[in-house]
Each structure stands twice: as C-alpha cells, then as structure tokens.
Amino acid sequence: ISGCRFLSTKSVLFRRQPVVLAFPSDQACRACEELAKLAHPTAGIDTMLAAAVRSRVDIFDVGAAIGEGHKLPAVRTHAAHTEQINSVTCSPDGFRLATNSVDRKLILYNIDQESAEAEFLGQEANGTDCCFAPDGSWVASGDDSGTVRFFDTDTHAAKGQLRAHTNTCESVTTHPHAPCIATSSGDYSVRLFSLTCLPDEKEPEPLWVGEEHHSRVWRIRFSPDGTHIASASADSTVGLWDAASGALLRRTREHSGFVYTVACAGDIYASGGRDGKVFVYDRRTEGVVCSFHSSTEVRGLALSENASLLAMSHKGDGNTAVFDLSRPDRPLVRCDTSSPRDLYFVPASLPPK
C-alpha cells in the first residue's frame, strides 16, 4: 500500500493464485482486534451467499461448511436468464432474489424455489444493477440507457421510471430508511433522488450531484445507517460521500487500477479492483484495516449484514472465498463456483431450512 510499510504478510491458498493478507505496520498488532470490534457479536448469522455466475445464480449455505476445508457445492441454482447477469440482490426479509442481466430482463425469484417468480420486461438496454425498497415492496433496475425502472414485487406491475443519467446508469442503491435512491454513471457522477415524486415525474431534479470522480463510477452502496455512500470508480479511487449533503468526505487511492466494486456493512466498507486487491476500511477512523492481494482482478465482493464475513471472487478463479474478518488469515470456506460477477449475502432474517 502506498505510504505504508508491511511488517508481515500471510498467504492463503486461493486455487492456484495466492491471496496475501496484509496489515500496515502501524496496525499489525491490532488489526484482528479492531475487526472484531467492528463486527457484530453474533458472527456468522447470515450465512447464505448468492453468486451471479454467467446466466445463473448459485446459492450456498456457507454456515453448513465453515471450517470443513473443502469446496462447498451450491444448494440451489436459479437459471432464468439467457445472458450474463450483472447484479444479484436480496429483499430485506431474505425471501426473494432479484437479478439484472445483459438480456435486458429483471427477474424475481423466491429464494426457496428454482423457477422464477416473475420476469420484468421493458428495459431498453442492458441491465447493470438492481436493488430492493427498504420494505421490499418494489425492486429497481438500472440499465445502459441511464434509466431506472421500478416494479411492484407483489403485483409485478411497473411502478414508474426515473431518467437518472444521459449516460449509462452503472449502479443503483436504496436508502435504508428514507424514500431516496442513489445512482452512479459513466458520466462520472453520483446522484441522489427523492422517490416521493414517482411515478408522476420521470425526470426529477436530483437532490444533489457529486462530480468529484474523474472517470466512470462502477458501483455505489449505502451504509446500513444511511449516512454515507461508498463509490468505486475507474479513476482508481474509492469515495465516501455524506448522503445528506453530497459532500465527498474521503477519497482513497489504495488501488492501482480500476475499482470495480464496493460493499458496506456496520462501520466498515470494502473495495475490490482490477489490481486483484481488496481493501477493508473503517468509516470512523478513515483507515485501511486490512487488505487481501491476488494476481487476478476482483469480480465480486460482499459483506455480511453483521459485518463479520467477507466474500470475494476473482476473474479466472474456480472458487469464491469467504473470510471471517475477526480472523482473516485464511478462508473459512470456498464455494465451488466459477468467477461470479456479483455476490450478495442473504439477510439474517431468512429462516433456517
């Protein structure tokens, strides 16, 4: 990491490529303790992981195999798309999945059933990202045309659309408590919109526009308390925004190439990029808590709801590794799936099977 000296490193086997866990020298003795403080005390509660692999979604029961030291097979597969899935997300109650794809379909599933519950058509361009309402009543879909479309999860009817950008809408994320949605784009901006005007107004003015990134903003995510938005950009930086004002609070430059993805949970957020590195940050101290290094680019990244588990996948690798962030020296388990484009931990409210 630029500006830091490493006191020591530990390598963990990630198929044939090593993933190196590194602590900055001034944190080497405290890193695991700090991560344990950031994690919820009930580590491992949300142990179902959804992985978007080409045109299907694989579901893994991570908790069933923690510590067993072998590749974990999928317990269920959803295969309703015909082309690459770019995003997978889960409803807050843990009962439904939604996926967005290059085939221009947004598909809704009951997580316990292999067949699709509904297919939402009408997207005019490739799907890029999707998210649920905080109460699960609708699902939103962003696409390459810059439009966000909303669909009712019970009636499956269209609820309206939002013309968010004139360029690609790369990412969408819902405020966890307020009627707002944030978007990011190939126009280098992050925007926040109020949803109180929908469906009457299709092109409302954003509440704020953040234009501090210097290239495409690939992915954004709200923090669980709704106070911050984390952003991953092709300008090699990770942004942390004040959700209320749109002020850029921090922009870190740990990566040496495109930053493709971010994830938020508790008081931490994580980023993954083309350089094969994953960094875990503390929102409170503004520091990097730990990092994982590999020789191949990061494709998918997810943090569990209680901030105890981190899942990551790499391009060209045959598995997805899940780490306990209070003991991150080696993976808890590896999921047997090939280079997922996106990962998502199912919320803890999902009842045990």
Distance between the termini: 43 Å
Main sheet specs: 6 strands, antiparallel
Total strand count, please?
Answer: 31
Low-confidence stretches: 1-19, 23-32, 35-45
As a whole number of angstroms, the C-alpha radius of gyration is 19 Å
What's the overall average pLDDT, rounded? 85
- Determine the structural class based on helices, strands and strand pairing: mainly beta
Spatial order of the strands forming the largest sheet: 1-2-26-25-24-23
Shape: globular
Helix tally? Answer: 1
How much β-strand is present in the residues?
over 45%
Helix content: under 10%
How is this structure best described in words?
Helices cover 2% and strands 48% of the residues. The termini are far apart. It has one helix and 31 strands. It has a six-stranded antiparallel sheet, covered by helices on one side. The protein has a five-stranded mixed sheet with strand order 5-30-29-28-27, with no helix packed on it. Mean pLDDT is 85; it is low at 1-19, 23-32 and 35-45. The radius of gyration is 19 Å and the shape is globular. The chain is mainly beta and 353 residues long. The protein has one helix spanning 31-38, and strands at residues 6-14, 17-24, 48-53, 56-61, 71-72, 76-78, 85-90, 96-101, 106-110, 116-120, 127-132, 138-143, 147-152, 158-163, 169-174, 180-185, 190-194, 208-210, 217-222, 228-233, 238-242, 248-252, 259-265, 268-273, 277-282, 288-293, 298-303, 309-314, 320-324, 333-335, 342-345.
What attributes characterize this protein structure?
353 residues, mainly beta, six-stranded antiparallel sheet, 31 strands, globular, disordered N terminus
